[in-house]
Here is the input.
Amino acid sequence: MKTEKLLDLFARNGIKVIFRPLRYSSGGLLQHGGNWYCLVSSTDSFVRQRWTLAHELGHYLLHARSGVCSLFDEPTQEREANKYAAELLIPVDQVIACWEALNIYPYNKEEKIKILAKEFEVSAQAMEIRIKEVNNVPSSHLVNCICHNLCLDRAGYRAR
Ligand SMILES: [Zn+2]
Here is the structure.
Protein backbone atom coordinates (compact mmCIF):
# COMPACT_ATOMS: atom_id res chain seq x y z
CA MET A 1 0.00 0.00 0.00
CA LYS A 2 1.34 3.39 -0.99
CA THR A 3 1.98 5.95 1.75
CA GLU A 4 -0.61 8.35 0.37
CA LYS A 5 -3.32 5.70 0.64
CA LEU A 6 -2.10 4.73 4.09
CA LEU A 7 -2.37 8.33 5.31
CA ASP A 8 -5.79 8.54 3.72
CA LEU A 9 -6.96 5.71 6.02
CA PHE A 10 -6.00 7.83 9.02
CA ALA A 11 -7.93 10.79 7.64
CA ARG A 12 -10.97 8.59 7.04
CA ASN A 13 -10.84 7.34 10.63
CA GLY A 14 -10.42 10.87 11.96
CA ILE A 15 -6.94 10.23 13.35
CA LYS A 16 -4.49 13.11 13.15
CA VAL A 17 -0.97 11.98 12.23
CA ILE A 18 1.89 13.90 13.80
CA PHE A 19 5.44 13.43 12.57
CA ARG A 20 8.07 14.57 15.02
CA PRO A 21 11.38 13.38 16.47
CA LEU A 22 10.65 10.88 19.23
CA ARG A 23 13.52 9.91 21.44
CA TYR A 24 12.31 6.68 23.01
CA SER A 25 9.82 5.23 20.57
CA SER A 26 9.05 4.91 16.88
CA GLY A 27 5.46 5.94 17.45
CA GLY A 28 2.27 5.70 19.41
CA LEU A 29 -1.45 6.14 19.38
CA LEU A 30 -3.19 8.36 21.87
CA GLN A 31 -6.50 9.92 22.59
CA HIS A 32 -6.86 13.46 23.84
CA GLY A 33 -9.94 15.62 24.16
CA GLY A 34 -12.02 13.16 22.19
CA ASN A 35 -9.56 13.10 19.30
CA TRP A 36 -7.15 10.40 18.25
CA TYR A 37 -3.55 11.12 17.37
CA CYS A 38 -0.89 8.92 15.86
CA LEU A 39 2.66 9.94 16.61
CA VAL A 40 5.39 8.86 14.21
CA SER A 41 9.09 9.35 14.79
CA SER A 42 10.23 11.60 11.95
CA THR A 43 13.86 10.60 12.41
CA ASP A 44 13.14 6.94 11.60
CA SER A 45 13.71 5.65 8.06
CA PHE A 46 10.91 5.99 5.51
CA VAL A 47 10.07 2.27 5.61
CA ARG A 48 10.12 2.25 9.42
CA GLN A 49 7.70 5.21 9.49
CA ARG A 50 5.38 3.36 7.12
CA TRP A 51 5.47 0.30 9.36
CA THR A 52 4.72 2.46 12.42
CA LEU A 53 1.72 4.00 10.65
CA ALA A 54 0.31 0.59 9.67
CA HIS A 55 1.01 -0.83 13.15
CA GLU A 56 -0.69 2.06 14.96
CA LEU A 57 -3.66 1.91 12.60
CA GLY A 58 -3.92 -1.76 13.58
CA HIS A 59 -4.05 -0.77 17.25
CA TYR A 60 -6.73 1.78 16.49
CA LEU A 61 -8.93 -0.65 14.58
CA LEU A 62 -8.33 -3.69 16.78
CA HIS A 63 -7.75 -2.40 20.29
CA ALA A 64 -8.79 1.22 20.76
CA ARG A 65 -11.95 1.83 22.71
CA SER A 66 -13.66 5.17 22.78
CA GLY A 67 -13.16 7.13 25.96
CA VAL A 68 -10.28 4.98 27.09
CA CYS A 69 -6.76 6.25 26.83
CA SER A 70 -4.51 3.25 26.52
CA LEU A 71 -0.90 2.51 25.93
CA PHE A 72 -0.62 -0.44 23.64
CA ASP A 73 2.33 -2.47 24.73
CA GLU A 74 0.84 -5.80 25.70
CA PRO A 75 2.61 -8.61 23.74
CA THR A 76 -0.59 -10.09 22.25
CA GLN A 77 -1.74 -6.68 21.06
CA GLU A 78 1.71 -5.98 19.64
CA ARG A 79 1.60 -9.22 17.65
CA GLU A 80 -1.90 -8.42 16.38
CA ALA A 81 -0.88 -4.89 15.37
CA ASN A 82 2.17 -6.27 13.54
CA LYS A 83 0.03 -8.85 11.79
CA TYR A 84 -2.34 -6.11 10.72
CA ALA A 85 0.59 -3.99 9.46
CA ALA A 86 1.98 -6.94 7.49
CA GLU A 87 -1.37 -7.64 5.84
CA LEU A 88 -1.87 -3.99 5.01
CA LEU A 89 1.60 -3.31 3.60
CA ILE A 90 2.38 -6.76 2.17
CA PRO A 91 -0.88 -8.46 1.08
CA VAL A 92 -0.46 -12.24 0.77
CA ASP A 93 -1.80 -12.58 -2.79
CA GLN A 94 0.35 -9.73 -4.07
CA VAL A 95 3.54 -10.95 -2.48
CA ILE A 96 3.00 -14.50 -3.75
CA ALA A 97 2.40 -13.19 -7.28
CA CYS A 98 5.52 -11.00 -7.20
CA TRP A 99 7.67 -13.72 -5.66
CA GLU A 100 6.56 -16.11 -8.37
CA ALA A 101 7.14 -13.50 -11.10
CA LEU A 102 10.75 -13.16 -9.96
CA ASN A 103 11.34 -16.87 -10.53
CA ILE A 104 12.16 -16.24 -14.18
CA TYR A 105 15.27 -14.29 -13.11
CA PRO A 106 18.38 -15.86 -11.63
CA TYR A 107 18.06 -14.10 -8.27
CA ASN A 108 18.80 -15.88 -5.03
CA LYS A 109 16.40 -15.71 -2.08
CA GLU A 110 18.19 -12.79 -0.44
CA GLU A 111 18.12 -10.74 -3.65
CA LYS A 112 14.44 -11.50 -4.19
CA ILE A 113 13.64 -10.34 -0.66
CA LYS A 114 15.54 -7.07 -1.25
CA ILE A 115 13.72 -6.46 -4.55
CA LEU A 116 10.33 -7.14 -2.99
CA ALA A 117 11.14 -4.99 0.07
CA LYS A 118 11.85 -2.08 -2.28
CA GLU A 119 8.72 -2.78 -4.30
CA PHE A 120 6.44 -2.92 -1.25
CA GLU A 121 8.32 -0.11 0.56
CA VAL A 122 9.02 -2.13 3.69
CA SER A 123 12.27 -3.16 5.36
CA ALA A 124 14.09 -6.26 4.12
CA GLN A 125 13.56 -7.71 7.60
CA ALA A 126 9.79 -7.20 7.40
CA MET A 127 9.75 -8.79 3.95
CA GLU A 128 11.81 -11.76 5.09
CA ILE A 129 9.36 -12.42 7.94
CA ARG A 130 6.43 -12.06 5.53
CA ILE A 131 7.94 -14.49 3.03
CA LYS A 132 8.34 -17.04 5.82
CA GLU A 133 4.72 -16.53 6.89
CA VAL A 134 3.45 -16.75 3.34
CA ASN A 135 5.30 -19.99 2.83
CA ASN A 136 3.32 -21.42 5.72
CA VAL A 137 0.04 -20.52 4.05
CA PRO A 138 -1.46 -23.65 2.45
CA SER A 139 -2.08 -21.79 -0.86
CA SER A 140 1.67 -21.41 -1.27
CA HIS A 141 1.91 -25.17 -1.61
CA LEU A 142 0.06 -24.67 -4.82
CA VAL A 143 2.51 -21.98 -5.92
CA ASN A 144 5.40 -24.30 -5.07
CA CYS A 145 3.81 -27.03 -7.13
CA ILE A 146 3.34 -24.66 -10.07
CA CYS A 147 6.96 -23.48 -9.87
CA HIS A 148 8.15 -27.05 -9.58
CA ASN A 149 6.16 -28.06 -12.65
CA LEU A 150 7.51 -25.10 -14.63
CA CYS A 151 11.05 -26.18 -13.79
CA LEU A 152 10.25 -29.67 -14.91
CA ASP A 153 8.78 -28.30 -18.12
CA ARG A 154 11.88 -26.33 -18.88
CA ALA A 155 14.07 -29.31 -18.21
CA GLY A 156 12.03 -31.28 -20.68
CA TYR A 157 10.51 -33.77 -18.30
CA ARG A 158 6.95 -32.86 -19.13
CA ALA A 159 4.59 -35.79 -18.98
CA ARG A 160 3.22 -36.82 -22.35
ZN1 LIG B 1 2.21 -1.38 19.28
